[in-house]
Amino acid sequence: MERPETVIQKASEEKHKSGLIKTIGLFTAVTVVLSSMIGSGVFKKVAPMSENLMSPELVLLCWLLAGFISLLGSLTNAEIAGLIAEPGGQYVYFRRMYGKAFAFFYGWSCFAVIQSASQASIAYVFAQSLNSLAPLPRLSPELEEISLFGFLYPLRNLGVKLLTVSLLALLASVNYRGVKYGSSVSRVFTTAIVLCIVVIIILGLSISGGSVNNIYTDASTYLTSEVNTSRLGLIGAIFTSMVSAFWAYDGWNNLSFLGGEVKNPKRTIPLALIIGVSTVTCIYLLINFTYLFVMPIDEMIAVFNTPNTIAAIEVVRKFLGPVGAFSISLLILLATFGCVNSSILSTSRVYFAMARDGLFFRKAATVHPIYSTPSVALVMQFVWSSVLVFSGSFDQLTDMLIFAAFIFYGAGAFGVFVLRKKMPDAPRPYRALGYPVLPAIFVLFCILLVAISLIERPQESFTGLFLIFSGLPFYFIWKKNKANVLDSSE
User: Where would one find the signal peptide in this protein (predicted)?
Assistant: First the structure.
């Protein structure tokens, strides 16, 4: 006879039909949203945006617009999340909206660039931050100049890269052992990060000696900035800078990937999306206002042009000295650690769902017999993210993945219109706010961002397109294999 506590535990651990266990409540769901968004971008991206725009007011405008657009996307996506709650999130949504082919290309894009590059980039910032505290070993200049294809230098900053891969391995193993472990890490780290950012805002606005005049003072070289020299003038410069801001906001839809492990998902996911994205938008506006309040924009541009510097560290160093710089370095370590963990936790479920449909490596559909996690999908994700660590710079990777992500963000928001036609009578616990106007605005913005990115950042954009369509031969192979299996079973 089973012990009473065992019966209670089994009753509380409701299983999804896929074999995954439902353990995530509202608070944890909100922390997954927060930790998926608050990573490295909020500490780094104000510097390249300042260099590009040369105006503090325009920089803050970009952060505000990016937050508003992200909120529109989450409000729209929340209706779909309340309608369909399955492991794989956006992949499953696309399968219902447009069919398996389109869903496959989304999932493949996550694997090839969107999510894997995100994990590689954020983990790399973690290693860079640690390197600023305690320099990691490097190879000789001759070995570092060894290249692949003339533009990849895998041996450069080898100590940083090996630490990055070690972090990815550690967090993959944590999530391998169960969603409870991964979500617990998210809760602890996210709470600490938000509290630390609030402290920085309070100190920066009270004792830093900064000035509101810094917010209204343009750079000395404003007239020759990207605002005036880009192909599309002010509009092009703003959209280019918003790509940087969107990197910091990206990740708001990662919670949907965990649909099979969320308690009462049709209520919890929409509510967590709205709370999480609104909170992050407020935090980002306040912290970036603080950066520019403390540091005049000419100094911020100098930070951008100094190798191996992080804007947030230099701002805090300005008014708290070396101790403050050390403290903010630790905060960045916490934030990037938590963000990588949330991404690994959530996005492995996409490949798990694809494999269950026969559109990914078959082993990725494996559920661990003890830990009830998509164990093989986690390992595959780790391997490819580690490969990406040895290619591309941080900014190239982030610009490339944001371009690819917004293709699918737009398609996802348009799917609200599609599902209203396909599933008119299905119960919707949450209906998109401002339908059809606000979802339409978000879709049009996504189209505009993709078009301007192709003009302003053609190399990163076309590389993103290449990686999206690199899955084409795999799609036909897996589709053919699935057809052969069905034929043989008849």
Answer: none
Q: How confident is the model at residue 373 (pLDDT cuts 50, 70, 90)?
A: confident
Q: What is the pLDDT of residue 1?
A: 43
Coil vs helix vs strand at 136: coil
Closest CA to 415 of 92, 104, 87, 29: 92
Q: What is the pLDDT of residue 417?
A: 94
Count of domains forming the chain: 1
Tell me what the pLDDT averaged over the chain comes to: 82
Structural domain range at position 251:
17-482
Residue 489 in domain: no
CA 222 → CA 428, 462, 464, distances in Å?
49, 30, 31
According to the model, what pLDDT value does residue 5 have?
41
- The residue among 175, 193, 184 whose CA lies nearest residue 346 is 175
DSSP character string of 59-120: HHHHHHHHHHHHHHHHHHHHHHHHH---BTTHHHHHHHHH-HHHHHHHHHHIIIIIHHHHHH
Q: Which residue type sits at 125?
A: V
Band (pLDDT 50/70/90 cuts) for residue 7 is very low
Q: Judge whether residue 266 has pLDDT over 90.
A: no
Burial 15-33 (b: 16+ CB within 10 A, else e): ebebbbbbbbebebbbbbb
Neighbours of 433 (CB within 10 A): 15
Pairwise CA distance, residues 276 & 281, whole Å:
9
Phi first, then psi, for residue 88 (nearest 5°) are: 105, -15
Domain annotation covers residue 296: yes
Q: What backbone torsions phi and psi does residue 489 show, to the nearest 5 degrees?
A: -85, -10
| C-alpha distances out from residue 86 to 16, 252, 257, 413, Å | 9, 17, 8, 18
User: Is 4 a member of any domain?
Assistant: no
Q: What is the CATH number of the domain that holds 144?
A: 1.20.1740.10
In a domain, 6, yes or no: no
